[in-house]
Amino acid sequence: MSHFVVIGAGQAGASLVAKLRKDGFEGEITLIGAEPVVPYQRPPLSKAYLLGDMALERLYLRPENFYGDQNVTLRLGQTVTAIDPAAKTVTVGDEVIAYDQLALTTGSDPRRLPAAIGGDLKGVFTVRTLADVDAMAPYVVEEKRVLIVGGGYIGLEAAAVAAKRGVKVTLVEMADRILQRVAAPETSDYFRKLHGGHGVDIREGVGLDRLTGTDGHVTGAVLSDGSELDLDFVVVGVGIAPATGLAELAGLEIDNGIKTDSLGQTSDPSIWAAGDCASFPHGDGRLRLESVPNAIDQAECVAGNMLGAEVGYVPKPWFWSDQYDVKLQIAGLNTGFDRIVTRPGEGSSVSYWYFKGPQLLAVDAMNDPRAYMIGKRLIDAGKTADPDVIADPAADLKALMRA
Ligand SMILES: Cc1cc2nc3c(=O)[nH]c(=O)nc-3n(C[C@H](O)[C@H](O)[C@H](O)COP(=O)(O)OP(=O)(O)OC[C@H]3O[C@@H](n4cnc5c(N)ncnc54)[C@H](O)[C@@H]3O)c2cc1C
User: Fold this and answer.
1) Is residue 154 in contact with ligand 1, taking CB distance under 6 Å?
2) Among 15, 46, 106, which is best to mutate for testing ligand 1, by the most ligand atoms less than 8 A from CB?
3) Of 21, 259, 349, 388, which has fewest CB within 10 angstroms of its CB?
4) Ligand 1 within 6 A of 109 CB?
5) Does one domain contain both 221 and 330?
6) How far is the CA of 106 from the centre of ligand 1 (A)?
């Protein structure tokens, strides 16, 4: 009987094994995960779960009995240390497991602060795993003081939760503005104002020089502008790197992630990759996405291709972020935009539409699900939109769909 092995029991790995069974694969499936928990969703880790508003079981992507019911061997708390593509085996501890086809869904690793500037002090947290957040939770209480390093989505979401819990929050962003890597100045302005209104002290163009500590625990920080802070804990949200170490060791090609073709096949025809760790062909170049929708869609596409479907992966990017009572929904990819059109909505809702020349690329919609939905449909269909209609709050967006 054919044996498919999947390394990485996260969002993509769980989706991949479920789709293999859904598509009728009757062979053996083994899903191996380094974390000691059944596959769970990460987005609530910096949102409802950190806030204490969500029970652990609700994080699970599928009920615990799903894997047994589907005849999937789930090996949790076990790290694969080597792949031998010639022998078609993987090594876990002292055990060597043979595969017919292998999928890598190893996700990504958070960037950490170097130990030389205090990154190894106690009370310094990254936000990637359930264990990270469970360790941080006792600090996220009234009167504590936190420094958040990095003004991307993870840092801002952590800031929102901490502020809601009565923590005194300072956030530093080395770039000129928060969200610089991912959004237009308009979106940065919106979230800066939102956080300011909740008492978060956002300092842009300011980096961290070093952390200071007493008895091995962080107690303060010196910032790049020379200012000093007294602290109880630190949250590091300075980005992630695709988890490619295992693939590199196995001699697979790497290009900002594990390099795949449009089917998800790596440079070894029996090995596939999906999710945060995979870079795939897109337009004239390559793309690697760090999002739940991508992890699911790509993993499902790859599962089909492991069974011979031969369908190229076409991403339909979307993303969301929750901060206070604002839901940000993003459709498309804004890379290369040269114009932003603002559509005011009701109350605090607004959407920013990104164009490159006449082409609509992406939409950031704050508390405006309708603008998001219409923008997404247009982008997914490869259509564009009339900027004058978008900018006119009295104009019906639905007209854009008919154009
Ligand atoms: C705090 C947080 C908030 C987020 N919020 C959003 C959001 O709002 N919207 C959104 O779209 N996305 C969000 N994301 C991103 C999203 O969660 C990821 O893009 C998604 O989880 C990627 O899925 P994946 O399966 O590729 O990787 P992961 O879910 O990270 O799974 C990879 C798994 O592989 C395991 N692994 C790695 N190497 C090995 C090995 N050698 N042996 C065994 N196991 C191994 C890892 O331990 C890990 O469990 C968020 C992420 C975080 C951390």
Assistant:
1) yes
2) 106
3) 388
4) no
5) no
6) 8
179 and 210 both lie in a single domain: yes
Please indicate, yes or no, whether the overall pTM of this predicted structure exceeds 0.90. yes
Residue 306 Cα to ligand 1 midpoint, Å, equals 22
Q: Is 177 in the pocket of ligand 1 (CB under 6 A)?
A: no
Mutational test site, ligand 1, from 5, 11, 238, max ligand atoms within 8 Å of CB: 11
Ligand 1 centre from 388 Cα, in Å? 39
Q: What is the mean pLDDT of each run of 10 residues along the chain (403 residues)?
A: 97 98 98 98 96 95 97 98 98 97 98 98 98 98 97 98 98 97 96 98 98 98 98 98 98 98 98 98 96 98 98 96 97 96 93 96 97 96 91 85 68
For position 191, which CATH number holds? 3.50.50.60
Ligand 1 in reach of 44 Cβ (< 6 A)? no
Structural domain range at position 135: 112-236
Three-state helix/strand/coil letters over the chain: CCEEEEECCCHHHHHHHHHHHHCCCCCEEEEEECCCCCCECCHHHHCHHHHCCCCHHHHECCCCCHHHHCCEEEEECCCEEEEECCCCEEEECCEEEECCEEEECCCEEECCCCHHHCCCCECEEECCCHHHHHHHHHHCCCCCEEEEECCCHHHHHHHHHHHHCCCEEEEEECCCCCCCCCCCHHHHHHHHHHHHHCCCEEEECCCEEEEEEECCEEEEEEECCCCEEECCEEEECCCEEECCHHHHHCCCCECCCEECCCCCECCCCCEEECHHHEEEEECCEEECCCCHHHHHHHHHHHHHHHCCCCCCCCCCCEEEEEECCEEEEEEECCCCCCEEEEEECCCCCEEEEEEECCEEEEEEEECCHHHHHHHHHHHHCCCCCCHHHHHCCCCCCHHHHHC
Number of folded domains in the chain?
3
In a domain? residue 320: no
Ligand 1 in reach of 127 Cβ (< 6 A): yes
Domain-embedded: residue 319: no
